[in-house]
């Protein structure tokens, strides 16, 4: 296939890029748009069409106004307000197992233990079913933790997980500063 002669590109349902439950969604959408426009713009007479229901989306506005700096400032402000990186570290803890009730029970007990951690600032989100709840016959629940003191928090978290009595067949996965929260 000859991609060198393509002069028209379209982004159907741009809004769907923000339906992914991940704080990186805006960053990924912005990167995708800038990559697309830089690829297509080198061709004479090229055009890009974007379908959206939300024309006031700050990612789209920064793209239309050719202002990556505006996007960057707004994204940083959003992350500061919500205590997301780079203003914190994220830990995603997933409990998975073939028995959905056992995995659910384990994540709730683990949540209870983690919530007792003292002397370190942190926020717990969840527990809740993971966005991809079932993968290869394994049911998944997760907790997201935001902390500004990752070193001290991890020491305490490691002790809790090491001593945690999980149900037979359950697995605990800990992902610090995950690329995806899925």
What is the H level of CATH, i.e. the homologous superfamily of the largest domain?
Ribosomal protein S10
H/E series, N to C?
EHEHHEHEEHE
> Which structural class should the secondary elements be placed in?
alpha+beta
CATH class label of the largest domain:
Alpha Beta
Computed CA radius of gyration, to the nearest angstrom: 21 Å
Helix content: 25-40%
The mean pLDDT is 89
Tally of DSSP β-strands: 6
CATH architecture of the largest domain: 2-Layer Sandwich
**Order of neighbouring strands in the sheet with most strands:** 4-5-3-6
Oligomer: single chain
* CATH fold category name of the largest domain: Alpha-Beta Plaits
Rounded to the nearest angstrom, the distance between the terminal CA atoms is 33 Å
Discrete helix count: 5
Largest sheet report: 4 strands, antiparallel
Textual characterization of the structure:
With 182 residues, the protein is an alpha+beta fold. It folds into 2 domains: 9-82, no CATH class; 89-176, Alpha-Beta Plaits, CATH 3.30.70. It contains 5 helices and 6 strands. It has helices spanning 25-40, 58-64, 68-82, 100-114, 150-163, and strands at 8-11, 47-50, 89-97, 122-135, 138-147, 171-176. The protein has a 4-stranded antiparallel β-sheet. Strands 1-2 form a two-stranded parallel sheet. The longest helix has 16 residues, at 25-40. The chain is elongated and about 65 Å long. The model has no long low-confidence stretch (mean pLDDT 89).
């Amino acid at each position: 296939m000859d991609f060198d002669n393509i002069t028209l590109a379209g982004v159907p349902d741009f809004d769907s890029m923000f339906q992914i439950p991940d704080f990186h969604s805006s960053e990924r959408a912005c990167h995708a748009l800038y990559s697309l426009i830089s690829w297509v713009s080198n061709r004479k007479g090229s055009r890009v069409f974007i379908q959206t229901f939300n024309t006031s989306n700050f990612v789209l506005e920064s793209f239309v106004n050719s202002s990556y700096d505006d996007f960057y400032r707004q994204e940083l402000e959003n992350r500061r307000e919500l205590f997301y990186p780079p203003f914190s570290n994220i830990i995603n803890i997933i409990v998975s197992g073939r028995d959905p009730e056992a995995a659910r029970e384990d994540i709730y007990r683990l949540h209870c233990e983690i919530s007792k951690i003292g002397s370190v600032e942190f926020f717990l989100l969840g527990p809740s079913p993971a966005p991809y709840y079932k993968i290869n016959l394994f049911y998944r629940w997760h907790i997201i933790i935001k902390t500004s003191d990752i070193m001290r928090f991890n020491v305490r978290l490691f002790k809790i997980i090491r001593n945690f009595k999980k149900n037979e067949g359950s697995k605990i996965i800990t992902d610090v500063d995950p690329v995806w929260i899925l």
